[in-house]
Specification:
With about 325 residues, the chain is of the alpha/beta class. About 30% of the residues lie in helices and about 25% in strands. It is built from 11 helices and 13 strands. The strands form 2 sheets. Strands 3-2-4-1-5-6-7 form a 7-stranded parallel β-sheet, with helices on both faces. A 6-stranded antiparallel β-sheet has the order 8-9-13-10-11-12, with no helix packed on it. A hairpin with a 4-residue loop joins strand 10 (about 270-280) and strand 11 (about 285-290). The radius of gyration is 20 Å and the shape is globular.
């Protein structure tokens, strides 16, 4: 990432989430989804370009309880850096929000945004929490026409939403995922339709607002009735596409860490989301796997057994589960 911006959890600082992406990719759709969440957004400020043109519903903002700041003098780029820094100073001094969402214009180079956020004047008050780039899948086909800013938006991102995948042939999606990973190997990539994804993926485990989130994330909700097998499938994914597939895996036997690490590295790019507790001999840890990158953290839940939720695009569920079962310490 550009600069020395520190991505550390610190409740005393305003956490900034930057929404970037080329013109027409779906940034405003994503912002509308965020503002539609049922979480408390009263301690949140949103910065957009050309407020009157992007179509953000004022009623939506009022219902969310968040504040909107418009940068109408131009795009967020080098020529507007001073304007952005002045706006940030006013927001941090007067409003002191917990969360700050910045929707950049489609031609904004993320380097300029990162430089503004990393200004020494904001040290101790502001940190970059996520850089999210929305990529219209059709733009990837024509990527050579867009110049360096297009690729900078991908390379500086923590998360790329490969959007509008319902507009191309289903078999092309895994190919594009592989191509993007080859060009930008260190970024997480998640395919979406209308930027439909879960809050945890966008802003992290602690969510938004001044009060803690008590509901269980959608992808960890377990069915009340159990079947006589460890795997429960649900092909009716929330995006509504028949090519999205979600399923879960439950196991009481401890997993082998070496085998599981090899399993995660062997997964196809089309299997882009895994989350849940994993039981090892010594302890249980939370796995958060997004777009080819796995992160582990301590598990503080009550149930200590393995409970994993999977989301992918047209993946071979049976083969994935078979490989995972081979990682059980005492396979049954």
């Amino acid at each position: 990432m550009t600069g020395d911006l520190k991505r550390a959890v610190d409740d005393r600082k305003t956490k900034a989430v930057v929404l970037g992406g080329f013109l027409g990719s779906g940034k405003t759709t994503l912002l509308k989804r965020i503002l539609s969440w049922k979480e408390d957004l009263s301690d949140t400020v949103v910065i957009v370009n050309d407020f009157g043109k992007v179509g953000i519903d004022g009623d939506l903002l009022r219902e969310a309880g968040s504040d909107m700041v418009e940068l109408s003098s131009g795009c967020i780029c080098c020529t507007l850096r001073i304007d952005l820094e002045r706006t940030l100073e006013r927001i941090l001094s007067d409003l002191k929000p917990k969360w700050l969402f910045i929707e950049t214009t489609g031609v904004a180079d993320p380097a300029a945004v990162l430089e503004a956020l990393g200004d020494k004047a904001f040290e101790g008050r502001l940190l970059l929490h996520r850089m999210i780039t929305v990529l219209d899948v059709s733009f990837w086909e024509a990527r050579e026409c867009f110049g360096p800013v297009f690729f900078n938006q991908l390379r500086e991102a923590d998360l790329v939403l490969l959007n509008k995948i319902d507009t191309i042939d289903a078999e092309t999606v895994p190919l594009f995922l592989q191509e993007i990973h080859e060009d930008v190997p260190d970024v997480r990539i998640v395919p979406t339709v209308h930027c439909n994804t879960d809050m945890d993926l966008l802003v992290g485990r602690n969510g938004l607002g001044v009060r803690p989130i008590t509901r269980t994330p959608d992808f960890l909700v377990q069915q009340e009735t159990q079947t006589d097998v460890n795997v429960q499938a649900d092909r009716a994914h929330s995006d509504g596409s028949p090519h999205f597939i979600s399923f879960s895996f439950k196991e009481t036997v401890p997993m082998d860490r070496t085998c599981l690490d090899a399993f995660l590295k062997s997964l196809p790019w089309a299997l882009f989301r895994i989350k849940g507790p994993v039981r090892f001999d010594e302890a249980t840890f939370l796995l958060n796997y997004v777009g080819g990158i796995a992160e582990w953290s301590p598990w503080d839940g009550r149930e200590m057994d393995t409970r994993l939720a999977f989301v992918g695009w047209d993946v071979d569920e049976e083969e994935i589960v078979k490989q995972l079962q081979n990682c059980c310490r005492n396979p049954v």
